[in-house]
Amino acid sequence: MSQEQNPWSLYWSADRLHSCVAQATDQDQTVLNELWRSFAQSLDSGAKVLDLATGNGAVASAMLAVRSDLDIDAVDKASIDPTSYLSGQENLAAVRFHADTDLFEMPFELSTFDAITSQFGIEYAGFSEASSTVLSLLKPGGRFRYVVHHSQSDIIASSRVKVTELEQLTQVNGLLDTLIKVLRRETDFNELEQLGAAYLEQDIVRTEAVSGQVFLGIEKIASGLQLRPKESIELGVAMNLRVRSELSRLQQLLAAGRSEDEMLAWQQGLLSDAGISASFEPIVIDRQESLYLLGWLVSGQKPA
Question: What keywords is this UniProt entry annotated with (predicted)?
Fold first, then answer.
């Protein structure tokens, strides 16, 4: 699958280990790492682990930091390549990564794994449907732990604001559409400047990370188009792809959020359909000035 088709392929091609933290701080990563390290330490020696929607291997990295004996396979539907994309994560060389792998078409035998993990991943495939499929790969007595998007989390809230900003930038005949027309010589910069001024007058939240970078990019393209046309066109096309890809990624993230009622329905369905008991609880970080809702922590065990 190409990066144009899967926005996560483009996202993971950058040197980033984690995703989906609304206001990335060391505290967020510390909490997540501790969840996975404690789970790793509870597993038997040499346990076989399957990490779902692994991205660049954040879960595997955290677990191997305290349990180098674990035997880990990690899958993702995106075109991942963590050992090439990341720096300073030598322990990931021990992980078998499976790129371009759908959760419903994984190349493993039933009852293969002692543990299954996922950090902001399995819910993207449809939480109930994906759970039924992946838990068939768990050995009797095997355990699972997921960190799942909460529909009311701070991650979802901040992503919703960014989606509004990105939708304005990517609307039909909007700023980015017109930029591409300028590069194709179908219109001139006057129209682009007018649209830019109109965009800045809109009553929406604009961020330096999104709108600020787009306007800086347009300024760079405008200043270099005459002297470096090929480079400027490539920059404009790449920026257009990145912005639209990020919009698609965040729209998927919003759709992945699960409410308490949805989690209860999943829990009850898992028990009635597969006889598997599972628990879930919110992950809340106390940041002194406020409480920060990170997601749901889901745990369970397959009957022996």
Answer: Methyltransferase, Transferase
